[in-house]
Design a protein that fits this description.
It contains 10 helices and 17 strands. The chain is α/β, with parallel strands linked by helices and 350 residues long. It folds into 2 domains: 40 residues, no CATH class; 287 residues, TIM Barrel. The strands form 4 sheets. It has a 10-stranded mixed beta sheet with strand order 14-13-10-9-8-7-6-15-16-17. Helix 1 links the parallel strand 6 and strand 7. The longest helix has 12 residues. It is globular.
Length: 350
């Protein structure tokens, strides 16, 4: 484990890193245990694009048992990703990619080759993470999850949600909550950033928390996207005033634990606030096709999972490797060109 100190303007970043990458334009340092990652351009600025993705969102699941009415993936069903295909992905990117987010249409922990998938990523220096609903989460899956960097549980507000959170944290796994930032979840989001607990229930005239906030790692807000099954759920789209209120409070929160946002929400938040230099280092607008990518169960490589349609997807095969698609395909170049013109835009239009 190597200790590196990097100076960014007036900010000093110090940390221990065990995975490194360096080329003519930038350097990357990553800690495979803590997940800390530093990307630094040699000219003092952040690179617009890395030569391969730093994060690969890999859709190992082809269908979902839950059939949520707001799911952006929709009710599409296809076979799960083959273990051999997952290994192909890791083999092509392991020298550069630091993390894989296991996803797709359903709970990744229900993939029949879940253990082998997680093990292969770890064996090759790539940290696996995943999000689950918590339904049908078994003890053996929790044991496998100890090899992951972090596990996120989607906030369904149900018994299986709280059971999964408790069992994962009991196992010593870094555990997050994913909360959809929608019109209806605005009040809960505001409670969190004001330091109040939205997961309280009354039992025998006493308030009890359904989530152990002292052990919870982070709450991550994900912008609701009217896509897939949620295409017609327009009543879930946050009001502009809700996003503005959230934006003005989120960078000075009273809560006692970490909070985060996906890049989609960051795009909207930055319309209303100007983060300080330290905050700018911790957030980014859309990284799709620049530093991250989505690969579907059928091995179609797409800038992000919300652009999961033929306009943007390219099939990975013997001739069209991940490197080729990332750097040479017109679809990825066109996606990046839109982000270069407007870093805060969504090329998909969400």
């Amino acid at each position: 484990m190597e200790t590196i100190v990097l100076k960014e303007g007036k900010t000093i970043i110090a940390g221990q890193f065990d995975k490194h990458f360096n080329n003519d334009d930038y350097e990357v340092h990553f800690n495979t245990e803590t997940g800390m990652e530093v990307v630094k351009g040699h000219d003092g600025t952040d690179p617009f694009q890395t030569e391969l993705p730093l994060l690969a969102d890999v859709g190992i699941m082809g269908s979902c048992l839950n059939q949520c009415e707001f799911c952006y993936q929709g009710p599409v069903k296809e076979p799960n990703m083959k273990l051999e295909d997952f290994k192909t992905i890791i083999d092509q990117v392991k020298h550069h990619t630091n993390q894989v987010a296991l996803g797709g249409r359903g709970d990744p922990n229900l993939h029949p080759r879940f253990k082998e998938i997680v093990e292969y990523a770890r064996e090759n220096g790539v940290v696996p993470n995943y999000t689950t609903s918590g339904i049908h989460l078994t003890d053996s899956q929790i044991e496998i999850s100890k090899m992951c960097g972090a596990v996120a549980v989607s906030d369904y507000g149900s018994d299986f949600t709280y059971d999964a959170l408790s069992r994962l944290m009991d196992a010593g796994i870094k555990t997050n909550i994913h909360m959809i930032f929608s019109r209806h979840k605005f009040d809960s989001a505001l409670k969190i950033i004001h330091g109040f607990n939205p997961w309280l229930t009354s039992q025998h005239r006493q308030a009890k928390s359904m989530v152990d906030l002292d052990r919870l790692n982070c709450v991550i807000f994900l912008l609701f996207k009217p896509q897939g099954s949620g295409r017609d759920k327009l009543s879930m789209i946050p009001h502009d005033w809700q996003i503005e209120t959230f934006a003005k409070k989120v960078f000075d929160p009273d809560c006692k634990f970490k909070i985060g946002m996906d890049s989609c929400l960051v795009n909207h938040v930055l319309k209303y606030i100007e983060p300080n230099p330290m905050q700018k280092m911790a957030i980014d607008t859309c990284e799709s096709s620049r530093m991250s990518v989505y690969i579907s169960p059928s091995m179609h490589m797409i800038p992000c999972s919300f652009a999961d349609h033929p306009e943007w997807g390219v099939k990975i095969n013997g001739k069209k490797t991940i490197d080729y698609i990332w750097n040479r395909s017109m679809k990825f170049k066109q996606f990046r060109s839109r982000l270069k013109k407007n870093p805060s835009c969504c090329p998909v239009g969400l």
